[in-house]
Amino acid sequence: MSEALQVTAFGLALLSTLFLLLATCTDCWMVNADDSLEVSHKCRGLWRECVTNMQDGVRTCDQYDSILADHPVKIVVTRTLMITADLLAGLALATLVLGLDCITFLKEDPHVKLKMCYGAGVILGAGSILGLIGCVWYAVDVYVERAMLVSHNVFLGVHYDFGWSCWLGMAGSTGCFVASLLLTCCLY
């Protein structure tokens, strides 16, 4: 039972970590809302903004000037939280691999392996909470920005909704949290 639970938690943690990494690197944290008159699809990410022409499929991207440039708070905070979540999830995966019962490392000391799995669960939980805070922070900021424009009757021609990168980050963070619960609460 314990080995099956460990492998399940590892598979979920691996998939969720990949989701977190993909969300951090991709460009569609904010997308323009669907409109039948739109001839282009705009995505804003943590690192650049891209526009895809719907007629010929040509995609152009503008990199943000510099990592150290003056960016909006939502981008800086989300970048920081997502990168930290990625690093913690990667560390947790490395620790979990060494703590799995099916790995021969420290096979003679099962108590240490159990502690490694528990520690990996704690690290994964911390990373998942940071990732979820980053994604929710960004999503709330997008919603507040849109609500402020609507409440002041400002129409800029384009309004943005949450993109698939934001949803992917939330899914990855949630998966890491579930894997953390499996490792910390159910393994003993």
TrEMBL record:
Entry keyword Signal: yes
Membrane topology note: Multi-pass membrane protein
Keyword Protein biosynthesis: no
InterPro entries with a match to the protein in the record: Claudin, Claudin16, Claudin_CS, PMP22/EMP/MP20/Claudin
Gene Ontology cellular-component annotations: bicellular tight junction; plasma membrane
Main location: other
Pfam family, one: PMP22_Claudin
Lineage: superkingdom: Eukaryota
Keywords: Cell junction, Cell membrane, Membrane, Signal, Tight junction, Transmembrane, Transmembrane helix
A molecular function GO annotation: structural molecule activity
Family designation: Belongs to the claudin family.
Function: Claudins function as major constituents of the tight junction complexes that regulate the permeability of epithelia.
UniProt-recorded name of the protein: Claudin
Species assigned in the record: Pteruthius melanotis
Taxonomic path: Eukaryota, Metazoa, Chordata, Craniata, Vertebrata
